[in-house]
Amino acid sequence: MKERKIAGLIAIIAIVVVVMFAGCLKEEEHVSTPTSLPPATLTPAPEITSAIVSNVIDGDTVKLQSGEKVRLLGINTPKKGQPYYEEATNRLKELIEGKTVTLEKDAEDKDQYGRLLRHIYIDDTFVNFEMVREGYANVYVIPPNTKYSDEFEKAEEEAKNAKRRIWQPSEEGLSECIGILYFHWNAEGNDCYNLNDEYVTFKNTCSESIDMTGWAVKDEANHIYTFPHFDLAGGAIVTLYTGAGKDTTTELYWDSSGYRCNAIWNNKGDTLYLRDINGNLVISYSYGGFE
Length: 291
Ligand SMILES: [Ca+2]
Ligand SMILES: [Ca+2]
Ligand SMILES: [Ca+2]
Fold this sequence. Notes:
By secondary structure, the chain is of the alpha+beta class. It folds into two domains: 48-167, CATH 2.40.50.90; 174-288, Immunoglobulin-like, CATH 2.60.40.1260. The protein has helices spanning 2-25, 85-96, 127-133, 149-161, 174-177; strands at 48-58, 61-64, 69-72, 74-76, 100-110, 116-122, 125-126, 138-140, 178-184, 199-204, 210-211, 216-218, 224-226, 231-232, 237-241, 251-253, 269-275, 281-288. The chain has a five-stranded mixed beta barrel with strand order 1-2-3-6-5. A four-stranded mixed beta sheet has the order 9-10-15-16. A four-stranded antiparallel beta sheet has the order 13-12-17-18, with no helix packed on it. The radius of gyration is 22 Å and the shape is globular. The termini are far apart. Residues 12-33 have low confidence and may be disordered.
């Protein structure tokens, strides 16, 4: 009798531990789950609708005449202060501001900010795709909204090969000198609580020292790290950690802060962009992908 009681107690403890552990493992880098469920009486949003775009907010967000905001799916354009921000905004204005567009829903209706998530078309142009193809946006597909991820990848490949806009390379030589020696995007355990085990190591493979002051590291979203006054000596390496710490000549700390989780490098796939002080691309490195 006593043994059965103990066995039962152990089983309960085991279940509690497993549940707690499962909670810890949950990645929170892409938070899109609504905190409360909509009322059951709501009818699902139709797949295809049309609407008038009253104004363009930036290269990937617009406001409809109805007052609702729309975040274009699958893409990310530079934010204010970043290179090509104005250009991307203006291009989207040129394409759809004041016009009647077709909106297509993917898996999710809205994001956590209440913006509609949509693919936008005008006449025969798939606007999201076109923004990527012309080099104003990078691909930024967040599951489960993956309907056109293959198309977007192809458009990005084309823009990259043609070195359009955000893919404009840095001056001759820099890309050959700076490389990624090691990239540890998946920290041990829950990345949100182990930020300094998320890191990337750059190496200067040339013999000349490179002044990286004001250079920027960015991911597929809008996390940006700007280098402080920093020289990378010829043949030297430097590691950029996501968490906090004291900068040295070989270690730099992003000291990331964000929404719910401060991890930067998504474990299932992300892209690192390294830009020089003029905003030109030195390295872009993609890993992973979506199943
Ligand atoms: Ca990570
Ligand atoms: Ca992990
Ligand atoms: Ca990321």
